[in-house]
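Async update (no meeting this week)

Hi team, since we skipped the sync, here's where things stand on the single-chain job. The sequence we agreed to prioritize is pasted below, unchanged from the tracker. I ran it this morning and attached the output directly underneath so nobody has to dig for it. Comments welcome in thread, and please keep replies under the output.
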Amino acid sequence: MRAAVHKRYDVFLSYRREDTAGFAQALREKLAMSFPQRTFLDSESIEVGENIAQSIDRAVRSCALVVAVIGRNWHVDQDGNALLIRRRDWVRFELSTAIKHKRKILPVFVQGTKRPPDKFLPPQLRRMLLLKAARLQTDSWGHDVEMFINRVEQVLAVPAAPEAARSRTEREDRDQLLTNFAPLPKPAGSAPYHLPLESVVPAETVQAIRRSGQLVVHMAGSSGGIGRPEAQRAVAREMRRQFQVRRREDRPAFFYHLGDLIFFNGEPENYYEQFYQPYDHYPAPIVAIPGNHDGALGGRAGESLDGFMRNFCAARPQLTDEARDAARYAMTQPNPYWTLETPLATFVGLYTNLPEGGLLDVDQRRWLASELKSAPADKPLILAMHHFPYSAPRLRTATQPSRSYLAQIIDSAEEQSGRRADAVFSAHAMNYQRLTRRTDGRDVPYVVAGAGGYRRLHPVMRQKNKEPVRVPHKLGNTDVTLEAFCDDRHGFVRLTLTRQFLRGEYFAVDTRAGSERVDSFSLDLARHRLA
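Output:
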């Protein structure tokens, strides 16, 4: 039998998930640009089924440097109890292993964190924290990371890749860290996190879809009408009006929410005013992916996404405490990221977490590639995520967009799986934009539908004379074109799927005068061309 071949690393990143996961992921990407394929990060480097302790010991022994990423909650839990004095604490195990094997250790203090008091530290870690440390601040990220890379280069005695080869800009890296990555809650269902439409809508709705060969869906995001609910209520009212048609197949089967249901921090106590009450009379099921505001804690106690999990990932349909007197039952989605199976399309929904621009851990990235590969080839595949892969800048002076982090994630998953998405829907920007990506002879709509009800709208870039930008407008150095937008009214998308076409319409809503269709498009699924 051949002996197992274990990968060797040069840098080992040690961090606590509840403390500095976002910083560790950002450093991992920066190190990968400078020292390709040489950094150990537990979530990416330990395979399923491997012994964790043995993997850590083996990786530390192979490394020349262990980087300890230290934030304000590195040494204590949320109740202030010491973590590092526990023998089964993984951070303590990693650093103790590094000390045992006499590996160089570089402490990295983030966001002004100071050395923890000795009473929270075992003796060997007290000595470690007397070593010369690096410091990282979001407001000086570019400079601080450059100094950090220089330190690593000195230890490894290997020149870093030139700065020109590093694809991310200082602004992009800094923005990734303005809000820390939040660890995901335990899934409510089993992998691969699928939910069939039959378990969501009445049987007669599925029968009408199969008989007619047509599926109608509402889509919108950023709906939470905190403080000023008029816009959200108006959008909900106009969506309800579209059910007043004779044929069942012309009525929306469900509302797919694109995230940011609850402003500002996903508080469970705000679900009634911002979700259950506005949609109390919406006559179809509502499914959702969470947005960054749904997962934010904002200083409150509890777990990230706890309100979303209770109201959208319940073990069974039930009336939650948050629903109060509303009749809508909790949805039974299996996970914050999940796949909805329908007779005419596959909807793959991602959770892009809290950091600006989105951030996915390795598990979700692997899941995405697997879902693309296994999706039925005879049905269109639709990606949904809260943060947008592409968007027109909000200001005339804004930097022209390049290929974003999420765009790179999509491209990578499509390359790994050999399957491409037919359309991509997102929100986050509080307006409507329809963009087209033309690559390899295919037109792919990228739709931003983030004007679902939150009181503030985001204006799209203007020309030098302060007039609205003319469309079509090519976005920077991308293969993406802005085809249409609406940034002065709230609204929603109506998506109609048949076996031949994917058709989209955007309805702009006036709080007093009803709604108006201001944009439409049709994608020929056979030729993958927009009409």
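Quick observations from my side:
The mean pLDDT is 88.
The longest strand covers residues 514-524.
Reply here if anything looks off.
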